[in-house]
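One such shown below:
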Amino acid sequence: MIKRNIEKFVIKVLTDYNKMCFVSGPRQSGKTTFAKMLLDIFNQGAYINWDNLEHQKKIIKEPYFFENESRDLKKEFLVVFDEIHKYKNWKNYLKGCYDVYKDDFKFLVTGSGRLDLFQKGGDSLFGRFFGINLFPFTLGELENKEQPLWEDFYNALEFGFDMKQFSNTYEQLWNFSGFPEPFLKNSSTFYNLWSNERKKTLIREDIRNAYLIKDISNIEILSNILPFKVGSPLSVNSLREDLNAAYDSIKKWLIILEQFYYFFQIKPYSKSISRALKKEKKVYLYDWVEIENDSYRFENLIALHLFKSVSVWRQMGIGNFELYYLRDKEKREVDFLIVKDNKIECMIEAKLNDTDISKHLLNFQKKTKTPFAIQVVNKKNVLKRLRKNNLIQYIISADNLLYYLP
């Protein structure tokens, strides 16, 4: 099994901070496998999955079942609750577990829906947990033994990237996604079967059961449209025409699909930028292989790696990180901005084949006085460091850049 690079942070939350840890992420991103790896590390624990009927009966009949299962009180006992947010009274139940047993037991909660959103509507768990996402595999996680922190990435920006080559891993990610099972199978036939089943289960079971939606077909159609919307600002009005549905309904369906990790959004950056777009977000998928167009698939692959990076850095308490894009009304654009504590630290432009630095990237870098700009390309063995207007630019192969990200 491949070690996940959030492992040390999760253990720190459970032991040093003595909090419950909520680990959420897309369906089949490896949450259950990760939880069982942690159970092996703790060497004493219990696993409960709410989707298992026998496990449901166990919680209802004996809520604090783990008290009787702990064998050696000298060792820390880990209790894993998988998909527990599907239990109607889950917040009060976990509150009781933590408040009574926090000094003797550690609690890990995993789910394929966003647990922070399910938590809204009450503060019963406030101050009792920290959350972190488990994303699909990324290149840095697969190839870098230690999780790259922000300071490691910043040092590479400041002093220069070393030439790295991971073309085999990169091609495997490109063709089969970062979801563990299809990635490890390394088979197009398996990926096709897996992808169809994952999407069907996500929509027809997870979403329909969570929201008691009888007619799920519109959400299914919307999920089939979104891969063709990747890379451009998303217009709900445009989707209205595609689906022949009400504006408010489409907004609700988008919220649901995002909540269940089908896609994520990147906001436009407009601070101190005249004529910048301010409203329309761009959407990207957690599974970039769904995207047929190579340019947009490449942009999505880069987006997922960057989105994971800023999410993990923020959730680990390293800083207030956000990922934006920049586009003005003349349609001049930079694909991604890494913003830390309200300051643009780096601009990134994804180009499939073009190794000539983008004029828009240079112009926006100069206008915003951003210290670093990167043009990442889908070509092997590219690494150039430039300096213009006392600012630094890089042109770099994707596999090289992604090694430096978590």
In short: The longest strand covers residues 343-351. The mean pLDDT is 92. Residues 115 and 295 are 33 Å apart (CA to CA). The chain has two domains: 7-133, 139-403.
